[in-house]
Model the fold of this input.
Amino acid sequence: MTTQAAGTDDRDDSGRAETLRAAQAALAAEHAAVYGYGALGGRLDGDRRGDATAAAAAHRARRDALARTVRDLGGTPVAARAAYALPFAVREPSSATRLASVLEDRVAGVYSDLVRAARGPLRQDAAGALREAAVRAVRWRGTGVAFPGLTEKAAPPDDTAEAGATGATR
Done:
């Protein structure tokens, strides 16, 4: 993630504020993803545990870069919570895998907002983060979605465990 607020100099205050809000939301989602991967990693083994470890490292790196970006935009980075409520119980590898795909879908959703709000290098970085989250979601889920980052904002079907979950892991 770029640490400069490049591309925001020519924008009005409302545009900069929108970019900062979107960056803060992305940072909050990265905090939640790091927590979520910590919760699900112990339920996986073999290659899937390695995938979870790599994803957690990627989310930590994005989180740290976003904290710098928020500061560069003139904000104070949102802090991680001590704990987050998971959208469903994670007791076995299948629910851990499902949680990983939910986390990635949620991260893709907030990065789609940052892509819309940002300009220049920050927008490019956000698009790259959206792509990375979408690819990880496909790897976890086994299937893709037509518009990563947008479909995640739609309500899940009533018969899924995610139906009652909000848009952010808490």
The chain has four helices and no strands. Confidence is low (pLDDT under 50) at residues 2-9, 154-170. Residues 101 and 121 are 27 Å apart (CA to CA). Helices lie at 13-41, 46-72, 93-117, 120-141.
